[in-house]
Amino acid sequence: MFFSIQTIALVASTGLLAAQGASAISIEERSTSLCNQANYGASGYPWKSNSTPGSFCSQTKPSNNKYWKQMPFSDSYDKVRCSSSSRGRYNVCTGGNKRTSLPKNCNPPHKFPWGYTSPKASSTSSAAPKSTSSAAASKSSAAASAGSSAVASSVASSVAASPAASSDAAASSAVASPVASSAAASSDAATPASAAVSASASAVVDPLSYPVCETTYQVTYQNYTRVAANGVWMGLTMGAAAQDASYMTYTLSTSVDDCLAACDQIEGCVFVNTYYDVNEEENYLPKHTDGILTCAMFSTCVSTDNNDNWGGQDDPNTIVNSNGYCKSSACGAPA
Known about the structure:
By secondary structure, this protein is of the alpha+beta class. The chain has eight helices and eight strands; from the N terminus they run αααααααβββββαβββ. The strands form two sheets. It has a six-stranded antiparallel beta sheet. The protein has a two-stranded antiparallel sheet with strand order 3-4. The N and C termini lie far apart (about 65 Å). Residues about 20-30, about 120-125 and about 130-200 have low confidence and may be disordered. Keywords: Signal. This is Apple domain-containing protein. It comes from Kwoniella europaea PYCC6329.
């Protein structure tokens, strides 16, 4: 079979165009990758009502409305950087992000030497919060926190007095709300009783020796609350999320595990604050959709002193189940 010179030239040029097309796609992929966008595609800060997340980092989106269609899936963030010849410049390409120190004066949930483990935050805590009136939820939360603090105080006192405490005491302590332990960690929310509990616990237990871990992240607080100093909920005990200059980006997910995996894929990310951003008036928006976690990511482990986003500052939203995760060598993070 014989081919004319024109046919051979046409085939060659077609192959060249195809190669150029593949190269163009590769270049386009690099330019539009989330790692090359400001705040990894997120617009504004998560504590602002008009902000938008950069991506969705779980496998399945919960809705197909127009807002969700505009939300890209995570592209593993820095994977494009790691596919380049300069991959050695990026720590995330060579084994993951380095751990960082816990915030000063941090007494996070920990495991006790005698076997009791304080409540552990995990992906099971990501069930959708029930929609209720925000003010009513706030008051009931405050009441529950007070009752839990009382239980935690009596149990912790007995446990501190006797490291060989019975399993009954441990079981009683296990029913205490995580709000109680987070309130003890907050100077704003601490009562004399809870402050005493925190002092006695920290004297007995080293949180670095007995950490509660979620993969390579140490749980620094669970269901954190504080009294709102201003805004719609002023004077009420509300869930509170982190605001800090080390903010990097935020994404959405359906589980804590997905949030932490996303942080692992972002150069320099070492801390994640997960919470539900509830706003019944705008629950059609992705970040306010029932059951969807906000994953705010930071380059330093943020102290609860900076958890001053209690919602209601510029729209009637509430923060529910705010948890902190610091990448720590105590949990097996890279040194």
